[in-house]
Design a protein that fits this description.
One of its GO terms (molecular function) is ATP binding. The chain has ten helices and twelve strands. It has a single domain, classed as P-loop containing nucleotide triphosphate hydrolases (Rossmann fold). The chain is of the alpha/beta class and about 325 residues long. It has an eight-stranded mixed β-sheet, with helices on both faces. Bound molecules: adenosine-5'-triphosphate.
Length: about 325
């Protein structure tokens, strides 16, 4: 099957007073039609910047420093605003972290939906009304709420309203940036189930960013783990969960409770990610890595293929497997 989205060698920099900071560093990914791809990592690792770069929504001081975002066969990086306009909402839509920031607080839902449809060429009032009702039905919000202002809805309903808006044109790709993060655990779970159910019914692909790996464990087909601007592991979700190839993925898994799994103490990952303006010379995870050995401090790992999973860890380097020694002083 041909890919719906192909991101190749994508880099994004922020211009800061101390010079450019690379927040997304040579990232590659592919997405097939109807696929659910989870992107996980700690705060500040570049997840949102990557999504914004894919959607061509970056604004200064951020800019694409290199690479391609090919969506339905066309490189969006090379497009101008006029060329991007028909793709947005109709073929690719974005659901932001907080509906309270994304929805206009002084407009009723029906007016916000109508504005979006008019901006994309739909003029017929009856069509706008019918489609607005349809998408509210889809996300399980009573049609009467078309007359509501965002503050009259609960947090979960607001996020659902955002998703309804993203589905106005039944796009092929919905990009979601932590859409459940403002909700309590029960509302999070029910929204995730609804997103999955909508995806199954309508067939769109999803790029879903979260810092909570357990949230996507039952929903995503593949998982990309990011650390300090780079992808450090990429593979089928089950495989990454069952046998994480990168020590950082292992640490992330230990940091969140499993919904169904056995009870065990949560360990977290000691330390903090490096500053993107002062990266260590070798592996970016080396200062926090329980498995680091001498070369990790000096050699930058590539993304090695290990049984169908990409892992940016020297332990996965085929040339080294079995030869590495653990850091002096490390004993079990
Ligand atoms: N306006 C900015 N100016 C300079 N650097 C920025 C700016 N916004 C983000 N960055 C840099 O980009 C990095 C990635 O930020 P980004 O928001 O993409 O991370 P994230 O993984 O989505 O985090 P979160 O989960 O907290 O949203 C940050 O660590 C920071 O160094």
């Amino acid at each position: 099957m041909s890919n719906l989205l192909e991101v190749t060698d994508l880099s994004v920099t922020y211009d800061t007073s101390a010079g450019p900071v690379t927040a997304v560093d040579h990232v590659d990914l592919t997405l097939q039609p109807g696929e659910f791809l989870g992107i996980v990592g700690e705060s500040g690792c570049g997840k949102s910047t990557l999504l914004f770069a894919i959607a061509q929504l970056l604004t200064a001081p951020a800019g694409i420093a290199g690479g391609e975002v090919v969506f339905r066969g066309k490189n969006m990086v090379a497009m101008n605003a006029r060329e991007l306009a028909p793709i947005r909402w109709r073929e690719m839509s974005v659901v932001m972290q907080s509906a309270m920031n994304a929805l206009n607080p002084v407009k009723r839902l029906r007016d916000q939906f109508a504005d979006t449809m008019r901006a994309h060429g739909v003029r017929d009032k009856a069509e706008i009304r019918a489609r607005s009702e349809d998408v509210l039905d889809l996300v399980g919000i009573d049609r009467a709420h078309l007359a509501s202002f965002p503050h009259q809805l609960s947090g979960g309903m607001r996020q659902r309203a955002m998703i309804a808006m993203a589905l106005l044109f039944t796009p092929e790709l919905v990009i979601m940036d932590e859409p459940t993060s403002a909700l309590d655990v029960v509302a999070q779970r029910s929204l995730m189930l609804q997103i999955k159910e909508l995806q199954d019914r309508l067939g769109f692909a999803v790029l879903f960013v979260t810092h909570d790996m357990s949230l996507v464990s039952h929903f995503s087909d593949r998982l990309m783990v990011m650390y300090a601007g780079q992808e450090v592991e990429f593979g089928p979700t089950r495989q990454v969960f069952d046998t994480p190839a990168h020590p950082y993925s292992r640490g992330l898994l230990d940091a969140f409770p499993s919904i169904k799994g056995e009870r065990r103490p949560l360990e977290g990952i000691p330390g903090a990610p490096p500053s993107l303006s002062a990266l260590p010379p070798g592996c970016r995870f080396e200062p926090r890595c329980p498995l680091a050995f001498a070369d990790c401090a000096t050699t930058e790992p590539a993304l090695y293929d290990i049984a169908g999973v990409g892992s940016r860890c020297l332990l996965a380097d085929p040339a080294r497997i079995g030869t590495e020694t653990r850091r002096a002083g490390d004993h079990d």
